[in-house]
Amino acid sequence: MNRLRHLLPAGLAAGVLVAATALAAPAATAAQAASGRATVVTALDYYSTGWTYLQVPPTTQVPGFAQRGFDDSAWPTGQAGFGTTNGTCPWNNQTNVKTPWAVDTDILVRHWLHLPRDAQAVRIQGTVDNDAQVYFNGQLVQSVKSGKCAAGAIDVVVPATYLDCCNLLAVRGHDAGVAAYLNLRVTYVKPTQAL
Q1: Structural domain that includes position 23
Q2: Which pLDDT tens digit goes with each residue over 18-75?
Q3: Over the range 150-169, which residues count as b (16 or more CB within 10 Å of their CB) and which as e?
């Protein structure tokens, strides 16, 4: 690039630099966070409180539970992680399990979260034993078959078209026996404002 600057007028060189920067913009979100030009913010952390939840038999249908307008006012409120304190997974203990989730059942969980307008790369991460369907504002964003509590099996970036300022994260977790566990967090990238 230095050789090129000597050959081109200064205005043309600046234009080339601006064009190259614009072409790189779509990939900038992760790169910005890594370089310090953006900040990763936790919107909802592991072990968060304020979850509404309902345990149901695996075949029970609860139409619309993942939709924003669903009435969960009669559901109990709990703290993540949900699960059992027995099992072979390292998180099946009293330190990590804050709300009981019985084996051989499904658990429906819902949590509201606010995001700023400039939030980018909204990412849902977590662990489930055994399976989960993850919804964001009523849209299925990931189906997970993690088997026996594979750590980090839930990991999805929410499409930007699904985002709003007030958002609903809903998950249906399924347990196949022995032990159960579900814990989640949501992060986003906040661009650093130019001075």
Answers
A1: 2-29
A2: 333 332 333 344 544 555 578 999 999 999 999 999 999 999 999 999 999 999 999 9
A3: eeebbebbbeeeebeeebbb
Q: What are phi and psi of 93, to 5 degrees?
A: -150, 170
Q: Residue 51 is part of a domain; what is its CATH number?
A: 2.60.120.260
- The verdict on 23 and 57 lying in the same domain is no
Give first-to-last CA distance, the chain, whole Å: 27
Q: Do 117 and 96 belong together in one domain? A: yes
C-beta separation of 169 from 48 below 8 A = no
Q: Using H for helix, E for strand and C for coil, what is the string for the chain?
A: CHHHHHHCCHHHHHHHHHHHHHHHHHHHHHHHHHHCCEEEEEEECCCCCCEEEEEECCCCCCCCCCCCCCCCCCCCEECCCEECCCCCCCCCCCCCCCEECCCCCEEEEEEEEECCCCCEEEEEEEEEECEEEEEECCEEEEEEECCCCCCCCEEEECCHHHCCCEEEEEEEEECCCCCCEEEEEEEEEEECCCC
46/129 same-domain check = yes
pLDDT in tens, 111-158: 999 999 999 999 999 999 999 999 999 999 999 997 777 789 999 999
